[in-house]
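Re: that backbone. Tokens:
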């Protein structure tokens, strides 16, 4: 089933000029970049975007971080793109991410893990509408 999902290249990766390397991995995994924009969001916008995590101890730091620099936001499309992209990113903590995944290759820490990806069809729709 053809699906769309939202991808964000986080500040740590944009800052290190990894945008093209990450896009190359997406394309290799049959994830087509439908729309793309380079922006910086406010801490308030980040707080809205990450609202599902508002009770977590790392919420404030997470919002501070996502709004700390330029990000690249993309709509990806492909067969089962939500699952495929989650697998392409690797697990949340780069230390335990599988070899060859974006987070294993480029992630610095659980905070600076280089990329975001939607985790369900409902959230993909919400997140796409949030940015586009
Ligand atoms: P995901 O990005 O793999 O979907 P989520 O659990 O949705 O992971 O968490 C959102 C983001 O919050 C993660 O990408 C990561 O940067 C950060 N995060 C998640 N868990 C922790 C934690 O235990 N400590 C610090 N930051 C965390
Ligand atoms: Mg998540």
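Recovered sequence:
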């Amino acid at each position: 089933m053809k699906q769309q999902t939202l991808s964000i290249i986080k500040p740590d990766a944009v800052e290190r000029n990894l945008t093209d390397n990450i896009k190359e991995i997406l394309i290799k995994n049959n994830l087509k970049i439908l729309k793309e924009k380079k922006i910086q969001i406010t801490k308030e916008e980040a707080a809205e975007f990450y609202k599902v995590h508002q009770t977590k101890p790392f919420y404030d730091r997470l919002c501070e971080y996502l709004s700390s620099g330029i990000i690249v936001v993309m709509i990806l499309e492909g067969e089962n793109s939500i699952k495929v992209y989650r697998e392409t990113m690797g697990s949340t903590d780069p230390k335990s991410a599988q070899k060859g995944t974006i987070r294993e290759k480029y992630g610095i820490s659980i905070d600076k893990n280089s990329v975001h990806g939607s985790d369900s069809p409902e959230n993909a729709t919400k997140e796409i509408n949030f940015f586009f």
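The CA atoms of residues 6 and 127 lie 6 Å apart. The helical segments are 11-15, 19-28, 43-49, 59-66, 81-89, 102-106, 121-131.
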